[in-house]
Amino acid sequence: MHPKTGVGLIVHGFGGGEDATVGALVQRYGWPVIGLDSTTAGRVPITIPHVIWGPCESFRGSHKASWLPALLRRHGIRTIVCANYPQAVSELDALRDLLCPVKMVQVTHGLDDRARHHPSYPTFRVLGGYHLTLVDSLIWRDEILRTVPGANVVAVGNIELSVWIAARGSLFTQSRREECGIRKKTVLYAPSWYDPVRPDAVGNGWFERAGIDICRSIPLDTFLRVRPHPTSFVSSAGLVSEVAEFLRRRGNAELVHFSSRSVLDDILDADVVISDHSSVSPFALWLDRQLLIYDETDAGVWGDFVQRAAVVAKNQRELSSHVADMLRGVDQTRCGREEFRVRAALYNHDVLNDIGRAVNEVDLE
Fold it and tell me: What gap in Å lies between CA 61 and CA 16, rounded to an integer?
């Protein structure tokens, strides 16, 4: 634990953006990490060391983490920082009641405004219920405040993007492909994951339901890089192996494991990025890459400002057509990407310090 604070982090076990967010905070501040759901320990690819996993089956529903208050007291934790969990109002209310007077802070990653399309997934109402919510950009701060007037919300920037840029020294440095003089067109397919426990959840990606068909839609003369969500390597290991074999037979392709490098490096290497509900989508726009969002529903994946910056495909036929247009130089979303980069300020070179100061202020109140 950081010697000057009583702050700890809580994770629910899902890899991806949570890992990058929590990992950066642990590295900077040394805050202890509490695992809320022990059933995910060893099953979901958390890359953060020294997680203290709780004994409960799940915090959802009737299960309550009665062990958690005593554990927080043992570690001197007065304020907990969550990384995109809990996401349901009932879960937040239950956790808040259980932990009172412990304060709760949420640090988001890749937050979107799909909540306006899905009242059953009230992201903004949940995020307005914390003692402090730290979001990626002013757009999402304003969305939360419109839903929950008076909420304590601060826009600090995206941790993963900001740390990556700081390590490179510049935002628009050359990609590895450009440095090697490679001119081959490249498509990156980096989807989110599908939760079979909640098949209707708006956050579900399309890899498990359409991943192979999406891969087949990419021209054979185009280099195809597929980067499944970290959770898919565990929850859909058979499908990941099937996709790997398909790419091996196809040739001119690569399956990327999440531990090999940052997804931002793969985005920078791509001419076209295909994704869905993943935080890869706003990252692609921020790095000025053409984005193709795959979603077979009519619900709308992202808000209007993202929709104007991306092309949406609802089936493989549309996807094939859009990819072909993009690869031959048709760019119908350039103005939308410029608007996104102006309005969605995800980058902040001092993001970790800003988060540390804000959390400590809440902790010491």
Answer: 24
Given a cut of 90, whether residue 317 has pLDDT beyond it is: yes
The Cα-based distances of 229 to 44, 71, 251, 333 in angstroms read 11, 31, 22, 25
The per-residue pLDDT for 88 is: 58
Strands 290-294 and 311-313: parallel
CA–CA distance, 273 with 270 (Å, rounded to integer) = 6
pTM: 0.85
Structure tokens at 18: 């949570």
CA atoms of 3 and 124, how far apart (whole Å): 33
Give the single-character DSSP code of 284.
H
Q: How many CB atoms lie within 10 A of CB 247?
A: 17
Cis, bond preceding 122 (omega within 30 deg of 0): no
With a CB cutoff of 8 Å and minimum separation 6, the contacts of 237 are: none
CA 223 to chain centre: 25
Residue whose tokens read 């549309």: 318
Under DSSP, the state recorded for 175 is: P
